[in-house]
Amino acid sequence: MWSRRSTFIRVETWAQALYSPSSSNIYHHARKAVAYGANPNLLLLFLPLGILGGTLRWNALLVFFFNLLAVIPLSALVSDASDKLSDSVGALLGSLINATFGNSVELTAGILAVVNGRVTIAQSIMIGSILSDILLVLGLCIFSASWGKNILLFNPTVADTLSSLMMIATMAIILPTVLASTLAVHHSQIEDRILSFSRGTAVILLILYITYLFFQMRTHKHLFEQAQHTRQDDPSQSTTQLASPLQKYAPIATLIASSIGVVVCTYFVFESMSSTAHITHMSTIFIAMILIPIASNSPEGSAVIAVSRSGDIDFGISVIVSSILQISLFAIPFLVILGWIIEEPITLDFGSFNTMILFFAVVIVSYMLREGRYTYIHGTMLVGFYAILTVAFYFR
């Protein structure tokens, strides 16, 4: 049984993993854990094929899958480079870099969809990313951590905190859909009211995100200093950083190059989406809701799952909820504000079906976290629920 002091130290450690402006400790730890497995950088072989195919207008199906596979290692490179860069540019700027580039594939695809007037695709990508994190990745984390073991326990303080944050963030983006179903006015007036309400909510969510950064950088910075000071540096960097000034600029170059690659590949994925849907008899909503989020989240997801295999489930939960917060408090409001600026109306009304799914997923996971106990069957159920949703969206 933990002492009060050991419990307090563990809570601080998990809090830092969630709130720290630099998540390099998370990503480097995770990358070491999966170093023995398949190297996602091998998928970079598809990068020239994807770009060449998109430029020369090859078969849409080949263009789509070549670029979708290329996105997987590129998103890993973007995340790793942004984490390393945030270590050297300061806390606040580091947080903004992680928020901007942490979900670069979803954000790029969402921007392309909004600019091209395909609002439903943008909404589907955002909801699909949250569902992928909260059901598929979390389910696999729980399964990996508890397979072959008896009943295990979440850290209760961390679980309650993360559950509350997740509930608040997701409920805020569900409210406009609920409001749309309760307004008994003319159709055009409903759309105008929902649009105004969504834009106001988006501004509030962005303010909440800024407040969230201010909390961790200024008013309660001391809560995170202990773990930062005691964190072990990567041994591969201990002498190299002193010997080579070029390493200071390597993350910047990697971030720029991989971000350009993400934008280009995501553009070709987006352009070939409709033709791919027609050829494969899949809907564009299925591609946006399932395939794109899985490709985007797979590098971070596989790393977190590998870490959870050692029983470090609180660590995995903190990473997953942090990703959900970035989507709900930053990416989604950003797209709504972008639509406002370019006069392309995008609202937070995600439709009754999507909203219901998101609501039930959040409630199920929140209840599981607050219960404080888990076995591999809990993870199996979450993955199974995601599989059912995948089938539902395929036939929708």
From TrEMBL:
Family named by the database record: Belongs to the Ca(2+):cation antiporter (CaCA) (TC 2.A.19) family.
Protein name: Vacuolar calcium ion transporter
Organism superkingdom: Eukaryota
Record carries keyword Membrane: yes
Pfam families tied to this protein: Na_Ca_ex (PF01699)
Location (main, coarse): membrane
Keywords: Antiport, Calcium, Calcium transport, Ion transport, Membrane, Transmembrane, Transmembrane helix, Transport, Vacuole
Membrane topology of this protein: Multi-pass membrane protein
Parts of the chain that traverse the membrane: 33-52, 58-78, 125-145, 165-185, 197-215, 249-270, 277-295, 315-338, 350-369, 375-395
GO BP annotation list: intracellular calcium ion homeostasis
Cell compartments where the protein resides: Endomembrane system; Vacuole membrane
UniProt function note: Has a role in promoting intracellular calcium ion sequestration via the exchange of calcium ions for hydrogen ions across the vacuolar membrane. Involved also in manganese ion homeostasis via its uptake into the vacuole.
Molecular function (Gene Ontology), one example: calcium:proton antiporter activity
Gene Ontology CC entries for this record: endomembrane system; fungal-type vacuole membrane
Sodium/calcium exchanger membrane region domain mapped to chain residues: 60-217, 252-394
Cross-referenced InterPro entries: CaH_exchang, CAX-like, NaCa_Exmemb, NCX_ion-bd_dom_sf
